[in-house]
Structure prediction request, 190 residues.
Amino acid sequence: MSRAIAETQRLILRTEKPGDQQVWAAHMNSPAVMACLGGPRTAEAIAQSFARMADGWHAQGFSFMLLERKADGALIGQCGISLVDSHDAPEELRDQPQIGWTLRQDAWGQGYAMEAANGVLALAFGAWDMPVVHGQTSLSNRPSWRLMERLGMTRRADLDYIDFRYPPEDNPTMVYRLDRADWSPRNEEA
Prediction:
């Protein structure tokens, strides 16, 4: 059963409900959306990703949430916190909380990622009591690292690494960091 975790001005951040995986496959599993995330995934890989989201709630008490647009109820993406799980990551970064997001292409450029990320950071630094949140992306994913900068995250080039799960064009992995003391909501009404 789906539950709302948080709300922003235009979004409900919630857990999975029936039919979400099919919507994900139809709208988010495209070459454009998945370009910097290793490319489109199989139905099995999508199911595993959704299972990891659910497992995160049980194991850590936080995870990624699906983004439902209030205006029409459409599933437009995901945003949330997970733990850095790459064996290639520097020791200092492994098992640390990281924020991430994915939006369907027809939702790009409308401020939804900023809105969702601020809602997630409010949870991370509030209810979830995290002292720091990291972000990871690649140089080729300019919209992602630009959003990290607009969120107030600081570039940590000393933590960059090659993540062999991704193709050469999506490496090295660029690392950003935001400390609770340095965070202030930007364009957010969560």
Summary: The chain is about 25% helix and 25% strand.
